[in-house]
What we know:
By secondary structure, the protein is α/β, with parallel strands linked by helices. It has helices at residues 8-14, 29-37, 57-60, 63-76, 84-87, 96-101, 112-121, 138-150, 165-175, 187-193, 199-203, 216-231, 251-260, 290-293, 309-313, 337-340, 345-353, and strands spanning 22-26, 48-52, 79-82, 106-108, 127-131, 156-160, 182-186, 209-212, 237-239, 261-268, 272-281.
Amino acid sequence: MExxxxxxxxxxxxxxxxxxxxxxxxxxxxxxTEFFRTGVKNIFPEGLTLIDGPGCPVCVTTNDYLDRAIExxxxxxxxxxxxxxxxxxxxxxxxxxxxxxxxxxxxxVYSPVNALDIARQNPGRxxxxxxxxxxxxxxxxxxxxxxxxxxxxxxxxxxxxxxxxPPAVDALLAADEVKIDGFIIPGHxxxxxxxxxxxxxxxxxxxxxxxxxxxxxxxxxxxxxxxNLLENNEITIKNAYxxxxxxxxxxRAIEVMxxxxxxxxxxxRGIGLIPGSGLSIRDAFADFDAEKKFPVSVPEPREHRGCxxxxxxxxxxxxxxxxxxxxxxxxxxxVGPCMVSSEGPCSAYYKYWR
Length: 354
Ligand code: SF4
């Protein structure tokens, strides 16, 4: 049933009249879900379209990463510790769920600290944490590597699939494949990197953006500020989430992240290789770098047949435009990661849109 939003701000948004069609991209997987869950999407004025961007970390992770993790599990017999979303994601030829049912030791954890605990409890086994996420989680993952080194837990390592979001947005805008009038910018990533980190959207690409939080009031407020900028042709980045985000971010978190990780090129599903968009582990922590510790060769990665996650993550389509949506592809039988992850656009549309 449609959630009814009340209040003055909701009425202002509901009754807004646009003088032209507008396409706004939300970059963040949590925003994707929250726009639906809170009902804010239902009160968008006519002519306002929300498109999803590359903001779900599990979705943007390429098959190659998961193929490598599985191969390490097979060849080196490590315990694989991972967030739950990754378990059901199809790899090129398998999935962690399938491997687990075949005997691989795959354990779901709720934080990288849990993975380090597993390593401490199993000194005779190697434990590899699948480190997949954006700036929001990278500081915690870096802190765990520092802790593993400091407290001498040599059987712990991480497979870094960490990514940085601004380079992906920069790449999308530079590719110019899709009309984007403005951005709703993720609040939690911005709490780490600061609102100023998004200045390039306005300065280099001539689009406005608004940093927004996640409850209904935050979302409505963020959209209204963005519409106001667009109406007035004001090309700037506004921070509408000041209770959590400042201009320069969390300097301590950034420092911890930089202590352990080094910016590197990374491949994104649907977008390809983006310079400086990944985080590799510095040589000083090579003993905790699963890629160096467990060299494997992996077969040529294979895309999921018919899956259009890549197009979705570039804002080219919405989930209902994928021919497999809700038919061959459902949360119980997902063809691609965008239907598996709780932050994936297909999962959000399946849960709320229908
Ligand atoms: S509905 Fe399924 S197959 Fe289609 S894009 Fe989404 S995850 Fe891929």
